[in-house]
Amino acid sequence: MLKFEYWDMIRRNIRMDDPADLGIPTGDMICREIDAGHYETAKELAQYFVPESKGLHDLYCDWTYDIFDKVAKKYGEEAMYELLRETQGTWMMKRTWKGLSKMTPFQRLALNAEVFRAHRCGPRQMGELDITEDDEKYTLSCDPCGSGGRQRRGDPVDGTPSRLDKPYFFGKTSKAYPWSWSQAGVPYYCIHCAVNEALMIEWGGWPLWVTEYNPDPNQPCAWKFYKKPEYIPERYFTRRGFTRPAFDRPESA
């Protein structure tokens, strides 16, 4: 039997069902409550669907950042970067790139919007995104993203501070590298987005999207999906140490 209760210790509702029901996925429980005509309870469960995964999501993001930090401090920042390249360049990013390269730009946007909604973006950490379009590109903006953005700003939902400050003191690049968008002070966690770009350029000649990393943690970051590779400005290549290919038309302003 469903028992949906508010806990002061976590400042939100939690399922306190009978043991026989605790293993039922929340999505299935929502459907069950709708079938029973319990619409208000179904709404509450729908709002709970994302927060119930917050603890595990944030733990793995912060744990990953801590691993990168410890590798950089023990072996050097270049070793941390090589770790990212070695892991992202095999099954993870290679498989993703092969699939996404067959999609239209809008399909790539839609699939990544799904990923970012699940990534707990936005001030409520419920998956809010700002998506805009112009003649050349789609822009997916996160304010903040649910990992690096939350880690840089701190977590207002949990009431915890920036992961760059006490008690975490997780690291950031000590100088500008091609693999940190030619910027110093980039949190080690955020470097994986820059590595994604480099791998896509190496494999296909151009990135399927580019990251607009903002050094101000209080400002949003964005992913830009250009509708044609020739629309991608030169700066997105040179900041990573690449030369922009000679596409069919001149660089867009």
Provide a descriptive summary of the structure in words.
It is a single chain. With 253 residues, the protein is an alpha+beta fold. The chain folds into two domains: 4-49, no CATH class; 54-238. Helices cover 43% and strands 11% of the residues. The chain contains nine helices and six strands; from the N terminus they run E-E-H-H-H-H-H-H-E-E-H-H-E-E-H. The strands form two sheets. A four-stranded antiparallel sheet has the order 3-4-6-5. A two-stranded antiparallel sheet has the order 1-2. Strand 3 (130-133) and strand 4 form a beta hairpin. Helix 2 packs antiparallel against helix 3 (39-48), helix 4 (54-75) packs across helix 5 and helix 5 crosses helix 8 (191-204). It is globular, with a radius of gyration of 21 Å. It starts with a strand and ends in a 15-residue tail after the last helix.
SSE series: EEHHHHHHEEHHEEH
Q: How much helix, percentage-wise, in residues?
A: 40-55%
Global mean pLDDT: 94
Shape: globular
- The number of helical runs is 9
Q: Which structural class should the secondary elements be placed in?
A: alpha+beta
Total individual domains: 2
Got a strand count? 6
Largest beta-sheet details: 4 strands, antiparallel
Spans of at least 5 consecutive residues whose pLDDT stays below 50 are none
The order of strands across the largest sheet is 3-4-6-5
